[in-house]
Amino acid sequence: MAESHNAEQGGGTYGSAAASEGWRRSAAARAQFLTPITERMLDLAGIALGDRVLDVAAGTGEQTLLAARRVGANGSVLATDIAARMLAGAAEAARLAGLGNVETRVLDARSLDLEPASFDAVVSRLALMLISERNKALAGIHRVLKPGKKFVALVFATAAEVPFIALPMTIAGRRAGTPLAPSEDPGMFALGDRTVLKATFDQAGFRDVAVEAVSVVRRFASLAEGLQYSRDVLPEVAQLMAHMSTAERETVWTEIEDSMRQFDGADGFLVPQTYLIGVGTK
Questions:
Q1: Measuring CA to CA, how many Å separate 171 from each of 42, 167, 239, 266?
Q2: How far apart are CA 89 and CA 85, in angstroms?
């Protein structure tokens, strides 16, 4: 996940120090789980040696680094995000990995001030559904792509298919008096319907649009480990509970834990999860 619609409006949910720290803490577990799915996203984007790639709403940039390794020293990746703290993490990760072909730039996805037809591929991982005024972002992405090149976005499927995210947000929202609408737009599951995701690409002028579903299982050694990961990667839950007392917040987390117990067993904490990958050609 990268920037949310709140982040798009000034850093908000994902731009806070607490959110950035949570994402740093969960980086290894997130990378291990998401790398195969991210590689599929990059495969569909057709990224090759020497390419110039744009990563929109890059967050802390795990996918940025994977793309940078694919394009090689003669290629480059520009990672953009509105949350400066997240992007600083991406820049530091690129430096530590010895990748000199990564550039980061604080940019609002709705205002991509970049040269037209200047990128060989554009990708966005777990962010497109969270961007408000998405049509502006998609118009900008379409404009900066070279003709015949691809935009690929990884998003969550429906709330029912992503209980690890949906249950905490639903419970916290209900307790906060702001019940979660499963198809709230922008929102985690706004593009979770296959037809909606395809139509979003079609309406932005992309052709040969396709949507691919990827179903996996989230695996943690224990329920406690899974809940800590949830706390680290879902700043939205903390934001929903911001007005509550410490005791009230812990009561909410206890209810979330109880709801998650259905996925806990002898083999660990295992939660089914489905993603969608949308791809379109300029």
A1: 34, 6, 13, 26
A2: 7
Q: Are strands 52-56 and 119-125 parallel, antiparallel or unpaired?
A: parallel
**Cα separation, 263 vs 271, whole angstroms:** 6
Complete DSSP assignment for 209-235 = EEEEEEEEEEEESSHHHHHHHHHHH-H
pTM metric for this prediction? 0.90
Contact indicator for 282, 208 with CB cutoff of 8 Å: no
Query: According to DSSP H, which parts of 72-217 are helical?
Result: 84-96, 134-144, 163-176, 194-203
User: pLDDT tens digit string along 145-169?
Assistant: 999 999 999 999 999 999 999 999 9
Q: Using an 8 Å Cβ cutoff, are 92 and 83 in contact?
A: no
User: Which among 62, 52, 58 has a CA at the least distance from the CA of 27?
Assistant: 62
Report how far apart, in Å, the C-alpha atoms of 77 and of each of 23, 71, 121, 180, 275 are. 21, 8, 10, 36, 24
Predicted confidence (pLDDT) per residue in 202-243, tens digit: 999 999 999 999 999 999 999 999 998 888 888 889 889 999
Cα angle 261, 274, 21 (rounded to 5 degrees) comes to 70
- Report how far residue 143's alpha carbon sits from residue 245's, in angstroms, rounded to the nearest whole number: 47
3-state secondary structure (DSSP) of residue 68? helix
**Hunting for tokens 């299982």 — which residue is that?**
217
DSSP 165: H
